[in-house]
Write a structure and sequence with these properties.
Distance between the termini: 31 Å
Oligomer: single chain
Structural class: alpha+beta
Strand content: 35-45%
Helix content: 10-25%
Strand order of the largest sheet: 6-7-8-3-9-10
CATH architecture of the largest domain: 3-Layer(aba) Sandwich
Radius of gyration: 24 Å
Order of helices and strands: EEEHEEEHHHHEHEHEEHHEEEEEEEEEE
Number of domains: 2
Length: 354
């Protein structure tokens, strides 16, 4: 097994007396697309800043390519950063902006121009070399910032909410382009966002952060399908959460007592332990087409048409605290005020660690 490209070991950081990172350890593989995902205040941007050298951690170490880079300044470590506001020089041409980092490294003008043209071609802007940034659209300026970062051939490219200023259609287009560019250049990307859909569209390594800690990490398919914690289950997509208590545990099977009945699941929690169960919206079955686990009836409070499906919110008739969040087919006739049976399949119930 190859050594990680980036090895963050037991990193903690405080701003004054306020802890913003709490004993974070993370390994990032060469050629991977890692997303740091979390709400505001989770520590994701601080972790990116530590990786880029803009912040020195209060405790812990950062290794890149096996070298201790904890105290190495940004210009001397093998990383570059793409910021949300692009930070392009308005008085310079696009080619001058892209070649600026090479200029700072003493590269001659002809070589700079050739490399800048290659980088612009990589991001689909070969014809923009002599233009000024104000002549470009938001998406084009974003690609110029990406070309400027890639032209110096960093080991790790850091992206700080790079698509946050773009409209929805352009953001989705740029997601496709970012992933395609990353595959072509093979550079490891580390990308900060609070957008769950963006994370699932881009990442092959998803890191969910909360309150200065890593809650969950792994391939996005696993993090979504089998989240480890309640926070991960509710932040990386939506979930219906049932509270329960383990009444019996034997041979990898647990019986869990809940407000909607006793459920038998695969798991290893001890008898007497309080647990939380999560069910993803697409796994809740509404109406007569029943899954193998009955969850009682729900009174529909809201139905929102979302194109390919309807998002249904219903309150359990057995437990008024329990809210079912379900995806129904776009053609479903369910409406607010209906009382409908709710069920799922046992294999789709996730036993959470907290």
């Amino acid at each position: 097994m190859s050594a990680p490209l980036v090895d963050i070991r037991n990193v903690s950081h405080r701003f004054g007396q306020l802890p913003v990172l709490k004993d974070v350890s993370l390994a990032i593989d060469p050629g991977s697309y890692t997303i740091l995902l979390g709400p505001s205040g989770s520590g994701k941007t601080t972790l990116l800043s530590i990786l880029g050298g803009f912040v020195t951690p209060s405790e812990g170490k950062v290794f890149i390519r096996g070298q201790d880079c904890t105290a190495v300044p940004p210009a001397k470590r093998p990383t570059t950063t793409v910021f949300q506001d692009y930070a392009l020089f308005p008085h310079m041409s696009v080619g001058g902006n892209v070649g600026f980092g090479l200029r700072m490294r003493g590269i001659d003008g002809a070589t700079r121009a050739a490399k800048a043209r290659d980088a612009l071609a990589l991001v689909g802007l070969a014809a923009a070399f002599d233009k000024k940034p104000h002549q470009l659209s938001g998406g084009q300026r974003q690609r110029v910032a990406l070309a400027r970062a890639l032209v110096i051939e960093p080991a790790v490219l850091l992206l700080d909410e790079p698509l946050g200023a773009l409209d929805l259609k352009l953001r989705r287009q740029m997601q496709d382009e970012l992933k395609a560019i990353q595959k072509r250049v093979g550079t490891a990307f580390v990308h900060v966002t609070h957008d769950q859909e963006e994370a699932m569209a881009l990442a092959d390594h998803c890191v969910v952060m909360n309150d200065g800690r890593i809650e969950d990490e792994g391939p996005p398919e696993r993090v979504y399908a089998r989240p480890k914690t309640r926070f991960s289950a509710t932040f990386m997509g939506e979930s219906t959460i049932l509270a329960g208590t383990v009444t019996e545990a034997r041979d990898g099977i647990v019986m869990v007592s809940t407000a909607v009945g006793s459920l038998s699941l695969q798991g290893a929690s001890p008898a007497g332990a309080p647990v939380a169960l999560a069910i993803r919206p697409e796994h809740l079955v509404l109406g007569d087409a029943k899954g193998d686990v009955a969850l009682g009836a729900g009174k529909v409070g809201d139905v929102v048409f979302q194109g390919s499906f309807k998002r249904v919110l219903a309150t359990s008739m057995l437990d008024p605290v329990l809210q079912f969040i379900a995806k129904a087919p776009a053609s479903a006739t369910v409406q607010a005020g209906d009382t409908i049976p709710v069920s799922c399949n046992a294999q789709d119930i996730i036993l959470l660690a907290d």
